[in-house]
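Teaching assistant here, posting this on the class forum so everyone can see the example we discussed in section. The complex has two components, and the goal was to see what a joint structure prediction looks like when all of them are supplied at once.
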Amino acid sequence: MDFAKLDEEELSYELKTRGIAPMNNVNEMRNVLRGLIKIEVEGKSLLATDSSVSIDVKSEVKTCVKKLQVINTMVKNIKGDRYSEHYRAVDAKLCHLMNRVDKLPAVEPQDRKDRSNLLKGILFLMRKMEEMAISTTVVETNTNTNDNTAGTGTVILYEKTTITDMNSTSENSGSVTSDEEFGTEYFVQQGVAIKSLSKLLKGSKRHKNDSETHYTGLLKIMKYKTAKFIEWKPTEMSIFPDADEWNIVDTDYKQNGKNKNDCNIDIKINLATMKSYKMKKHKKHQISILQTNGSLVTFLFESSPINDFVTALKTLLHTEKEIRHHRPTGVILVLSERQDSDPLCQSIKELKIFPDQPPTSTVWSFISGFQNNPVEKTYETFAKISDVLLTRTPDTRPDQEVAELLNRVEDDDEYTMVDHPPSVLPPRPVAKPRGNPLNQATFYQSMDNEGRILNPDNIKNIIFYGGCEHLIRYEVWKYLLGYYPWNSTREQRLYIDKLQAAEYERMKVQWMNMSPDQISRFNMYRDRKSLIDKDVYRTDRTLDFFAGDGNENLVKLHNVLMTYVMYNFDLGYVQGMSDLLSPILMIMKSDEVESFWCFVGFMNRVNTNFELKQTGMKKQLNDLHYLLTTVSPELENHLKKMDSSNMYFCFRWLLVLFKREFVHSDIMRLWEVLWTDIPCANFHLLICVAILDNEKDTIINENYGLTEILKHVNNLCERIDLDKALTTAYSIYEQLKEAQPSLQDSVNELLGFSLSHSDTILSSDSNSKEDDYEKALLMNYL
Amino acid sequence: MANRAVPQRPNGQTPGKICQFKLVLLGESSVGKSSLVLRFVKGQFHEYQESTIGAAFLTQTIHLNDVAVKFEIWDTAGQERYHSLAPMYYRGAQAAIVVYDITNQDTFERAKNWVKELQRQATPGIVIALAGNKLDLNNMRSVQTDESQTYAYENGLLFMETSAKTSANVTEIFKAIAEKLPKNETTNAAQQGRRLVESEAGNKSLSSCCK
């Protein structure tokens, strides 16, 4: 902790808690503390915390909350990188607050709750700072004065119309009013950028060297008396030069006369004139909306997932996936607006939601509900809102017309959905040999004296090319799996250990304390437990680590999985998860807490594989099929002939990320490569392609049918050359990169190529992924 | 898909007929589906047989008089979560073994659901066998033989209690299935007589005999 950055009150506190009376001189206090902290960091804690210092909990909580708010504002305004004065000051204050909250004597339940909320707040800010440090040059500023303290990307959803207004809605249907007073907000989202506005406005072609302008604004879905609109208003402007290193020039448009005119544009899209839309979820989420007049608008979602917006749209529109050549193109066709007479609306109506309740109470019940159960509450509220829909006559458009319009914009780079014939790829580059694994010396030398890893990208690169020495996996995996932020200090990591141990214990106690009687009435719990019992018994028992009856590690495997059930009860336990945990438990030296949180990090990456409806798996298999079609059309052709183009023979590979295909030492090497997200998040699919490509001749020459393909692929188990698969996969990646312009949209998207020109927001693929991933992690803490 | 013949490699030594059938194993997780197959196909047993992910495919041929019956066995994952994949595996199957664990009543209930689903959705006339596995754990039994026997009789199923561990009744159950399966369109009367239940329906679709 940098004591130079603390104020007098904070310094006094630090001294008091160490049993030392504060001095009058600030500098003296700093000096004393610097001495003390050195000893503490080295672990020679001869300084027992002075517990005799009496703290008034309530006022202390108040102080801490105030400090948290101050730091929150500071974090938002950080200018410069992690070495800047500003950053370090915030860092120091955060450290101080962390200690302080940690020492809160929380006895009363309310105090404990306060304490836990404060801790979560601190962690939130820590992660936020880390995000900034990772993308060193990113400066995130939110100029909106009504900024919600929960951070950017919060969906604010409320209902503005008064009751009388609602009652009068059915009266006139002829006149369109754009008067905002009468509108109802269905959906509101801040920080949504609009892309290619210039093109939209002037129809001018942008030049590659032009800096792309993104206008950030407020996106809404509004319902007026007779029509519904998607509306967007600019709030600020950012300029992204086409360079790897970039800065946001963030200006409040009101102060910037030059840009004011450009910015002073509201976008309004009548839902009735929407023809189709298409989403991209790679890197930044974005949605392109095509209108009947052929104009195309693309919204970029800065920090929030696009799902809420799309859910809102789907509540209002009848849609259908566009299919061409038996394949979904990714384009969603808008058929018509939903009517009151729709079954959905009808059933909601029957619920009689807004009877005499003042709208404000609806808002507040939503907000409080949102905090407890965001997803459910959002859906519920969407459903409630759709109750006030107006009756309109159906406006179904003929398919042909839709197709025609879509064809017209096929040339637009953002809206291609042509099913390209498989293009001829350039020759595949010679596979580069693997590098040396990350060793202890390199790893520890990459830290500054407070233990921050200075260049995570460099470390990840080494791991991608050569893996990691077994000795340091225990440390490195915790970073790769997001348990430790890359820029955390030693001190912070000690703190994370402490906090997460407590959090783990809390959840573990929940299932451990369940009485047999209670369990007898808890069917869902019983099912999950029984599955875990069955699988723990048979997970990797051939390894020494899990061998023998009464092996302690089996108990730990069981405990972590059971605790994960309490952590994510809806997902529960699904076969395959024990496979994912087993190597982690080994690497974490049987430490339950560390294993658990690393497992959580891993699951955050792959939990869609375990969904009830298998949608995640189906998508992956489908994606794999796309890639294979591009890379190895002749094999794909054979598979198609043999009824195998659903790729189900790769199910096991993807579900547990090759866990069953490689010996234990290899699976560790493979996973750490995948966790780097280099060169793209779907690298595992390229590994599948590489392995299949290697088996291509056998499969085709032997004319294998459906069953033989499955058998052959299953039998490859423990016979695949990992190094070869990795190097081949990477040269396939390079080959595809070369061919990028001629590739299908879907393939480009899968490999992270599609956004490589103007709208690259972060400097590299891995960063972007890291960003999303960190955000996902962050959500776990809140 | 069902009758996509694996290319028959000419084999001069084989007298008589080779019949090929698709057989699928269904049942709750950890009842011993994979173990039954492993015992039948390789004569092995692993105490800690790992869970099946996706599906496994194995083949085994048995001889009934002068007919070689080749089973194409699809072994599936048992957890309810993967239920939605099951139709893909039982589609076109001529036979199924629905397995439960005699020490676990829940698995028996689950087995009944599988039977219902197969009767409703699988190939009409599919030969279904019910296997009460883990007979070696007889002292921990919770599903009584009478109960399963009656259920099987009422639903026209073959029934045996098996143990993949001791290999009790493993080959027998496959053999019983093989006997019940129609060998070709012109099955003679003697073979008909051996069948426990009539299977006049879907003979054509079932048969995948090759000379």
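For the discussion questions: The mean pLDDT of chain A is 75. Chain A touches chain B through 37 residues (CB under 8 Å). Think about how each of these relates to the inputs above.
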